[in-house]
Amino acid sequence: MKLNNRDLALRGLLGVLPPHLERYLRSTLGDRCTPEGLRALLADSDASDPPDLADLSTQIRVLTVHSDGSDGLDLSPELRTALREVGRLRDEVVSGGALNADRTLAVLDAVGETLRLIGAESDQAEVRELIAAIDGGQGAGSGPLDAVGVEVVCVPVLSYAHAVAGAAPAVSIRLSLPGYAFSSGAHASGLDASGDDQQRRTLVSEARGSQELPPGSLEVTLTLIEDDGGRQIAEPWHLTWDTSQPVLTETRTLALDRANLLQVEPGAAHVRVELRAADGAIAVRRLPGLTVLPPRQWRLDGGGRWAGAALATFVQPDQAAIGALAAEALRLVRRDENAENAGSDGSPGPDALAVAACAALRDRRVMIKAVSDPWQAGSHPIRTASGLLEACTGSVLDIAVLLAGVLERLGVVPVLLLAPKAVFLGYRRPQGDQGDQEDADGEPHVSAQDAADLIQRGVMGMIDPDLAVGASIAVLHELPDTVRSVALETLPDLTLAVPLDVARADGAEPQPMLDRDEHDVVIELAASPRPGSPDDASVLAPEAPDAPEAPEADRSSAEDEPDSGPDSDSGSDAGSGSEPASAAAEALPAPPAVAEWKRNLLDLSRRNPLINRPMHDSIELMVEPDLLGRLESLINAGDLVVLRSMYDAVDDASADAGDQGALLTEQRTVCIDLPAEECARRLQTMAASARTTLVETGANNLYLTLGSLVWCIDGYWVRSPLILIPVNLEQEGDTYGIVLDEAEASTPNHSLLARFKVDTGVDLVELREPVRDEHGIDVKATLDSLRRRLRRAGRRGVVVEPSVGLGMFRFSTYRMRQDLEENWPTITSNPLVGHLLKVQGSIFVEPANDDPVEDDDQVVENLPLVADSDQARVVADALAGRSLVVEGPPGTGKSQTVANIIFRALAQGRTVMFVAEKATTLDVVARRLREEAGIGDLLLNLHDNGMKPAEIYRDLRRALELRAPESDPADDDPDALRRELAALRKRLGEYREGLHDPRDGASYYRARRELIEERDAEGDGLEQAQATFEARARQTGLDAFDAAVHARLLEDYRDTLGRLRKALTPELLGSVLAHRDRVLREAGPRTEELRRELNRRRGTLNVRGLIDSYWDLVVAITPCLLVSPDSAARFFPADRRYVDVVIFDEASQITVAGAVGAMGRGRSVVVVGDPKQMPPAPVPGASKPGEDLEGANRRESGSILDRCLAGGVPSRRLTWHYRSRVESLIAFSNRHYYDGGLLTFPSPLAMAGRSDDGPGGYGVCLRRVEDGAYHEEKPRVRRPGVRPGTNPVEARQVVEEVVRRFEAHPEGVPSLGIITFSSHQCAAIEELLRKELGSQRVDEALEATDGLFVRSLENAQGEERDAILFSLTFSANERGDIPLSFGSLGHAGGERRLNVAITRARRQIVLFASFDPEDLRVEQSAHQGLRDLRAYLEQARSGSAPRALPASRSAVDLHRNEIAERLRETGLEVSVGVGHSSFEIDLVLGASGRPGVAVLLDGPGWDRRKSVMDRDLLPVDVLGTMGWERVERVWMPEWVADPDAVVTRLVEAAGGPPPQEQPAQEPEEPASSQESEEPGQPEEPTSSDAEAGAVTADEGPDEPHGAQEEPAGVMGSAAPGPIDYRQWRPAGELPAEILDRAAQDGAARAQVVEVARSICAVESPITRHRLIVKVCRAFGLSRINAEREAQVRNILGESFAYIDEHDFVWRSMDSMQVAPPYRRRALDHVDSIEEIHPRELVALLADVRATSPEWSSPEELYQRALRRLSTRWWRWRLGSRGVLPALGAALREAEREQ
């Protein structure tokens, strides 16, 4: 067992030192070593107890009495000093708390020095061993360099903003040799913590050890490192220390690394000091305590100048949004003829400009978000102006910074003023009093109090940002007197003033705009002019001051801007039925939640490629301007247009305009200006991305773009596509071509229309309503009219380019937004959607009637697929019309549940819309309904664009032609089968009720348990318990139970249930088709119209038009619709209800805004998902919560699942887990994410030992990749042939393992998945696989059902395979640190991604890691994902798996323990209660070390299961698939009636020997010569005590497996392991008269106390009663009555030793600190388990748990504990008196301590 530092200190102080010090003390005292002499020495004659010389405190007290030596002891001053230091350290250590290595070393050094001074040098080896064990064996002061003390002083906060401001931290370092150590604090060390106007923090790494440093120089390197990414955030500092000088003190300012600070995440940083000696020895000190902030975050820390410089950089007057506000302010001022403070030239003054700036901002309707923390606490995000105005919400600091930018742009000098949780904005005002003006300008650095004084005197104006956004007056001098006085009262609280002119002069320039490049790296953007235009400031500004004013309505936020017009939807097939709803939507104001949903669906920031098309994300096509219309016509006509590299042509003439025209018109070919290889690679990547997006979301995001609008946003130029044509990219051989996506039509870029109108006030009607021709859009005419419109609007800098591109654009969300825009009243009339409009915490009122639903068994019996009771409850609620949330953890049968809901809903005449983003999710359910339930023709798949209209028409025709099966007299009657099942169920229920129903007292099962307890305890109530049990058996009729009859009942139930399931499908088809025919008849001529439309060779309606016209008939023909959120919006007009039930699957990945549209198409909603799995996919480039980098970071939106759970929607959780064939695969997630609530099935593999990482293996395994190295995504130095963002060595090992597994499956494809922690690593592994296995075989494996997949962490949800290989990818950097950014795990929600990844395997997980788990320093990160990853890696390395719930939560079943004991007597290996979860196999039987038979009983766990399926069918079936050779049942009445017959059956099932005729006799108790109170065998004393007695230690048999003892030797005194129970024996009998007179005679009392102490020295902890008995025995008394016990108790008193709260006696409190954890074989010496200290039992159970399999039940743990406590363990049964309560309490405490 491992010792911590505190244990080591205690061992030295209380274990090693006191025996040596006692011998020295007795020798020094000589004749005075008597109770009287000690009292006289201590001047403590009144003390009733003689001093205890074995106690360290007493020893020090005696030795240090009378410091002058008079009447005391003649000790050297050095020894007196050492003893006092030891005493002080003893008090400090005993008081508790963890010790670091340095403090532990100080304690042990003091012990060693004391031993030296008392002449015990030879015994210092014990202390040296303890020192070597400090910090887990690494020792302290292991080298000379460790003896150097290091102290660093630095500002506590560093950030990108400081780097932009040019601020450089002043860093001081102090290095010292041993003997020159410094005290804590900067003052003591001589370092200044507040120099250069920086408030700095002192960081210390104390010296460890006292080894002498060799003479010479040390090379010292100091660097500042951020923890998460391991980046160096300042220039390194190199210095040389001549160690002939014992102390080095230096200070230097360090330049910050702006590029690296641009990439950091918010978190911790540290100072790294490397010491390098001349001989090459290196020591590294890590001094934590710094904080690093990413771009756009700030904290008031490090001093006013330091924090103020950083804050000034956030004021960005050159932003376009600032320019627009400034221009608006100028217009407002010019209108106001009474503008204040006009200059001599008539220009407006600062007051007028301040008032106008506030008015301009007020028109933007920005809301203020409260600040939760003071500016000195936490980090505070600061939005850019455009980000603030787009979000329409921000903090008061955001508002102040924005207004400061506007004022600076207008030429007014702003001053940012901060109070603890408030912000104000000051500005310089011109004053008539020249003296005041000099006061304002004379001192450049204005303090907070100076600013307050200037404001009080009116020299400085002030704006309250809170008032600026919501009140008509926000400037101080305009406020009413009462309000102004309140505002002035806050001025004394100001803590910081930042004059912008001073900050700019000091170098604090505005921050540049930021973005992410194609490698996801944050980059700075320069505000550059449009290519080809002059570099002129007026061109860069989006609006000149004299630009025409936008109408008031046009200045509203982009997200609330409606897009009106007949063609504003995504295509030309808008349903006619939408007009009334649209009118209603326009007539009513949309609720705030609807407006928020619309904003979330339409991203109008520059992150959206529809606003700013990145060149690297699209492919430019070479098409002449005059040919754009021709290309559009060919695509819309359905022609395939081939794409090829222009360098594929025979000569370069193909680039000429004429040849381009011929290529397009004659060969249907377009060229791309890329080399052939690059062209093929990019087209292949784009095709794969388009396919993946289609499968994942159901939306085709691949578009051909015609024309671009080049215009200016936020100071730099962007290109926005104009016309979008949806296309598919098809491949034939090496040739790629584009063809029209028939489900869509050409459409204008509506995102551009909305953003352009908001920014400029110009409505591009010519684009919103383009000119159309017979093929679609007349491109040339539309672009020409658009140019004319821009010229009329005065937008001369905006250019319409005739470009052509191919790219991925997320346009599908626009359709969902249009749904909300036009039909939000219909959508929100759905009860659940309407509830989501309310604030969180409101109560959801279910409109469905609370009609009683069928019980679980009835529901299960009417389902086509097997279902447990949790699934049955979900089905019952859904069929009752209730909206609910279904939490489905991994492998719990979500798709099976959905399939059952759909089947039963259709059977009851209801209609269903099943919604999922991923096609695979729908396919799993559809396959089950088609192949297992036989109703595939009733499903209509409308998930994605891959479903062409012709295919949909075909599916509808097939469903329309479907006929009900003809009835056959031989077929089973479903109703008759239901009645038969009800009768069988009733009889099975009667057995359960008789067994466990506690009517009229205890149940049969409880009465049996009480009988066993009385028998094991050998109590007096055995006969009564037997009579009670027999009476209960007669009352229930279980005394006549027939196991064979019961088994036949179960078989009959199973057989009848199977027959009913076969009859369900014909029954459903008959019902559904009868309803269909009735609807078609009632529709009259519309039915014939639909038939003609479906039978046409090429339909006249697109899918949306078909559904809009015939939706009721379509739903009657195919009552189950499979859709994605996008296809629901695309195909189903939102003005009506289509179905009764909407089911969402994988809802954790769907946003609220993306879900409500589809939810509004139905009446009730079932939301299925797992809140512990993947959140919605982030919008590419979006920012994280709390950050605003204008595209530099990502944001995760809340899911519809999370919102429903938070909104109080009723929820149910599925708990039976079926996926994992080995429990260790799900154990971690079950414990960490699901609170142990999943019921998992044990596997025989789990009992076979450690996991197997080979092909066909099982469990979770870790493979350490030696020499694996991660190459950064954007390295400073490029390595030839190495792909950035990968770990080539690790990738190669993963591929070698894959090849190995393919070789093991020569005829097929292994079920195998690869998950990487980096998308680049994913691509690298797939590329290597293609080289090793060939592209064809890899493609076949990737396409095979349950074959191969290669995914990154972000894309693994929904997949499952037999084996999963992980590539962790990351590794230590050049400094040996593992960056804690660690991909997506290093962010909020990373644990959800880890949970998804580690639950994909059915049999095996193999993790490839280039680092050891302990190398991941998760204590430096706040992210749970990293902490969980380390814990998971440690589990994988150990081969263990945690229990889902603590073992103590499992009830002990004495009945099954009784069966286990009988079976063990036959020689079988029996395990009790096997399992990691609350589902356990009651008994596992094995022979020859091979577990093979699972035995299930009918105990409390069986009774808690809610259905016959859960109790008697499902466990047997699933365990059979898990690999158990046999599953046997034992019924309690069967066992009671004939246990021998049951034993014989089970032994035969296990293949073991038959039971003997005579049960094995318990070993007879060995003869004992001990007294009755001391059972056990006496031993001859091995040593004698001079005064009291001797000690013996019983030698018992060998410990059972798993018990471990620490090696003997010096460390034995420090070992925390158990020891054998040592029994005190008196050397001889003392006279009884001593005891009799001890109450009055002090000397006699001292002798009695000494005997008691000698007993305690050997047997403590000992109960006070047992101690008194042994004291009496020592004085010859054999009978001890209550009176005698009370007499001895009074003699001993309370202070002779330490008595704890359990009434156990210790020799001293110090002895308790170093006592062994527990004593083996204690029950051989005491009368009951209550006489063993509870602390010992806790340590015992902790040790047993550590050496037992994780699946061990409490019974197993208790039995192992009893074997350690007694060599005669068979005498101690679990039912023995006190055993279960004592061991149960100990187990609970052991688990709590862990």
List the helices and strands and how they pair.
Blueprint: H1 5-29, H2 35-42, H3 56-63, H4 77-94, H5 101-117, H6 124-132, H7 134-137, E1 149-154, E2 157-159, H8 160-164, E3 170-176, H9 186-189, E4 201-205, E5 217-226, E6 237-242, E7 247-253, H10 258-261, E8 267-276, E9 282-293, E10 297-298, H11 304-312, H12 320-335, H13 350-362, E11 367-369, E12 380-381, H14 385-391, E13 393-395, H15 396-409, E14 414-419, E15 422-428, H16 434-442, H17 448-456, E16 460-463, H18 465-468, H19 481-489, E17 496-499, H20 500-505, E18 513-516, E19 522-525, H21 537-540, H22 579-587, H23 592-601, E20 618-622, H24 628-636, E21 641-645, H25 657-667, E22 669-672, H26 676-697, E23 702-713, E24 716-732, E25 735-740, E26 747-748, H27 750-760, H28 765-768, E27 772-773, E28 776-777, H29 779-792, E29 799-808, H30 812-828, H31 831-836, H32 856-861, H33 869-879, E30 884-887, H34 894-907, E31 912-915, H35 919-932, E32 939-942, H36 949-961, H37 974-996, H38 1004-1017, H39 1022-1036, H40 1043-1083, H41 1085-1095, H42 1103-1117, E33 1120-1123, H43 1125-1131, E34 1139-1144, H44 1152-1159, E35 1162-1169, H45 1200-1206, ...
Parallel strand pairs: 2-9, 11-13, 21-22, 30-35, 30-36, 31-33, 31-34, 32-33, 34-35, 37-41, 38-39, 38-40, 40-41, 44-45, 47-52
Antiparallel strand pairs: 1-3, 1-4, 3-7, 5-6, 5-8, 8-9, 10-12, 14-15, 14-17, 15-16, 18-19, 20-22, 20-29, 21-25, 23-24, 23-29, 24-25, 24-26, 27-28, 42-43, 43-44, 46-48, 49-51, 50-51
